[in-house]
Amino acid sequence: MATPHINAKVGDFAKTVLMPGDPLRAKFIAENFLSDARLVNNVRGIHGYTGTWKGTPVSVMASGMGMPSIGIYSYELYNFFEVDNIMRIGSIGGMSERVKIRDIIIGMGACTNSNYAVQYGVQGSYAPIADYGMMKTAIEECEKLGASYVVGNILSSDMFYNADPTVTERWTKLGVLGVEMEAAALYMNAAYSGKRALAICTVSDHLLTGEATTAEERQNSFTEMMEVALNTAIRL
């Protein structure tokens, strides 16, 4: 059954979906990694494909930018299309001396400045975390590939441009490795839906050093992260 945001039917998506933010990155993965990839969604230009990787069905679909966007798409995939596992594969801004440009950050937890968790009515602050089994498998795949990776806490922010120029140093003081805009909502949707989630991100720019990659590099060159995610997907 199609939803307002996904024009597909049950069975069109594999049990595991990779979710980059950028629709063109989803297209790149489908065209360069998946075998027999077919387009299963293109509502609002959000490309979704299903194919196989090493003989196992895998889907890839863009999430768009921000927690409201990934919140919609991941909720619908989990609850209407029988998807069990979603991996966010995206870019992240490094904010720790522990990481460098193009490192992979595996988000064990996702802090947030968002009010996304208010909907659950819990008393206190909910701590969104990754699925341990998915995280363990991704770490093993990083080791196999010899990828440079760090595991730890990340920040999912509602703001790309923050009016407070001092906020980065306070998150860094608490050991946060990098900042992105989606993982916390994905982790909360997974928990609420009884499903699994993980964020695997590549450091695209560094808030401490000022280094940065181009938009084209972010779209096409983060292939190590993509391969880690795909190899993780077929083991779930």
Write the layout of secondary structure elements.
Blueprint: E1 16-19, H1 23-32, E2 35-41, E3 48-53, E4 56-61, H2 67-80, E5 85-94, E6 104-112, H3 132-145, E7 149-156, H4 167-173, E8 178-180, H5 183-193, E9 196-206, H6 215-220, H7 223-233
Parallel strand pairs: 1-4, 1-5, 5-9, 6-7, 7-8
Antiparallel strand pairs: 2-3, 3-4, 5-8, 6-9
Helix pairs in contact: 2-5, 3-7
What brief labels describe this structure?
Rossmann fold, 5-stranded mixed beta barrel, 31% helix, alpha/beta, 236 residues
The neighbouring-strand order within the major sheet is 5-8-7-6-9
From the 3D coordinates, which CATH architecture would you assign? 3-Layer(aba) Sandwich
What structural class do helix, strand and pairing data support? Answer: alpha/beta
N-to-C SSE series? EHEEEHEEHEHEHEHH
Helix coverage percent:
25-40%
Summarize the main sheet: 5 strands, mixed, barrel
**Computed Rg:** 17 Å
Spatial shape? globular
Return the domain count.
Answer: 1
Q: Tell how many strands the DSSP assignment holds.
A: 9
